[in-house]
Amino acid sequence: MSAIRVVVAVGGNSLIRDSQHQSVQDQYAMAALTDDHIATLVQMGYEVAITHGNGPQVGFILRRSELAAHELHEIPLEVCGADTQGAIGYALQQNLCNDFRRLGIEKGVATVISQVEVDINDPAFLSPSKPIGWYMDEVTASRRQKEGWHVVQEGDKGWRRVVASPRPLRIIEAPVIRKLIDSGFVVIAVGGGGIPVVREQSGDVRGVEAVIDKDLASGLLATALDASLLVIATSVEKAALHFGTPKQQWIDTITLDEAKGYLAEGIHFGRGSMEPKIQAIVDFIEAGGTEGLITNAENLERAVSGETGTRITR
Ligand code: ADP
Ligand code: MG
């Protein structure tokens, strides 16, 4: 019997407990907790690829870059993506290697810097909507706008930069990731949804200042790897219908068609939080995947064993 191949998407919030625990050491400790559960999955016989968010981490790099701008060059957004893939990959990779050694599992772990192709004609580029970095005052916002940034005012808090969040089309490193998984390695890839790149007329790719939703990119990875299961580990044990209202109802198992119906109703899942997770699972199953699961890291093992989480089936 061949092993069940699973993509586990780790939420950005699973790496930062709260605003009092944001240091590199704190994030490392959180990565260790998440990895303990992933190591158990590997012990249970699953073939695992790990993806992760990077929203807060990119924010920190941009802030540092901004504060140091009088002395040092600034860091472009796509390079922040690459930096966070390296740093978060390192924390996940080292902890997982340590887990494997303790558990007597002979498996290597590799982090792959991942580029994800998007379409330069994606309508998202016409109306950038994803806030990035710190709040600015009006003078800074107007200077940045002249430099080419899109900025929006967010109430009294000030101005923020917004960038496009185009749809992920293709993971450039998918064949490499696949080879590694086929060879028995655990792979950490597509961090932060991947570094967005566009293809030039010449056929070359180049990075663009945008961000890709990590849930949608994780679904794409699951498809590219012919995984049968996509698990999205986030801050809630289950997804709910009518979330945050008196009619709220936790979901156990729903079919693909039911999930599509709830998405279409547009009232159940938070925009930019739960909605892309449901959408990613729907896309994955429609592309041939077997099922998707939403739960928190603490419940990973119980959820794959069918004891909890929200499950979307064919
Ligand atoms: P991640 O970093 O894991 O992507 P998000 O904050 O983007 O985390 O998404 C998880 C959050 O989505 C939960 O903490 C919850 O507050 C929110 N959410 C929105 N809609 C729902 C829903 N229908 N059911 C459960 N949680 C929801
Ligand atoms: Mg999210």
Helix coverage percent: 25-40%
Question: What ligands are attached or bound here?
Answer: adenosine-5'-diphosphate, magnesium ion
Task: Count the DSSP helices.
Answer: 9
Q: Which stretches of 5+ consecutive residues score pLDDT under 50?
A: none
| Proportion of beta-strand residues | 15-25%
- The strand line-up of the biggest sheet is 3-9-2-1-12-16-17-15
Number of strands: 17
Describe the largest sheet. Answer: 8 strands, mixed
> Element order, helices and strands?
EHEHHEEEHEEEHEEEHEEEEHHEHE
Coarse structural class: alpha/beta
User: What's the Cα radius of gyration?
Assistant: 19 Å
Distance between the termini: 22 Å
Shape: globular
- What is the residue-averaged pLDDT? 96
Blueprint of the fold:
Elements: E1 5-10, H1 24-43, E2 47-52, H2 55-67, H3 77-103, E3 109-111, E4 115-117, E5 130-136, H4 138-146, E6 150-153, E7 159-163, E8 170-171, H5 174-182, E9 186-188, E10 195-199, E11 205-207, H6 214-224, E12 229-234, E13 240-241, E14 249-250, E15 253-255, H7 256-265, H8 275-286, E16 291-296, H9 300-304, E17 310-313
Parallel strand pairs: 1-2, 1-12, 2-9, 3-9, 4-10, 12-16, 15-17
Antiparallel strand pairs: 4-8, 5-7, 6-7, 10-11, 13-14, 16-17
The site of adenosine-5'-diphosphate has 15 residues, from loops.
